[in-house]
Description:
This protein is α/β, with parallel strands linked by helices and 279 residues long. It has 12 helices and 8 strands. Keywords: Amino-acid biosynthesis, Cytoplasm, NADP, Oxidoreductase, Proline biosynthesis.
Amino acid sequence: xxxxxxxxxxxxxxxxxxxxxxxxxxxxxxxxxxxxxxxxxxxxxxxxxxxxxxxxxxxxxxxxxxxxxxxxxxxxxxxxxxxxxxxxxxxxxxxxxxxxxxxxxxxxxxxxxxxxxxxxxxxxxxxxxxxxxxxxxxxxxxxxxxxxxxxxxxxxxxxxxxxxxxxxxxxxxxxxxxxxxxxxxxxxxxxxxxxxxxxxxxxxxxxxxxxxxxxxxxxxxxxxxxxxxxxxxxxxxxxxxxxxxxxxxxxxxxxxxxxxxxxxxxxxxxxxxxxxxxx
Length: 279
């Protein structure tokens, strides 16, 4: 018998997870998706072959969708997670694992909005899941066993690397891998701006920065690759790259990156408190 998998909310991140899961071999016949707009539901049904319901047309779509489900992925915005959990709590199978992809929503908040003993997993995916190069950190709730955690891994395995971490490490993961793609894009922006300072056209500057950052990322993704070793291989003694790296060190770039990550982690903790105060 096929395991029923349900996505409650399916924006760009949810669709990336869905696409990776289907590409890994999960049958679309086993998947039910709920979204608000019928246009979006129709789009997902056509594109992926899944059953898609529109809650704007069917008021009980979410509760209906989770009936008999083995895995339920919560893909709505953080501010709406608690209400969604309360809405579906009575319709969930007691052994169904509920996976949240909402940033900053704690396991305690999720478990408190569901029936006692409901297995819950908190996840932190990042946007490269859209190209199959994501990283996802999972934290298991108090009622999660090995079977539940394995089911959570299966959902994300087709989209990237999956790691198990303690929940108190979630903010750190958010600051590094969750926000991290923006850091790489920011670097590419700065490189393109520097290229234009040399008189290169915006178009050429953009291509140089984009392809260099993307290519370096692909090299770093090779099995056994190490960032320090790769950097050293490009940094010839008394060469041009060595001068650039030395300048970065003098300007304190490593410390700037650390401070940025710390600010991101602190903000994640603040958001958790703000969401807790709302409920």
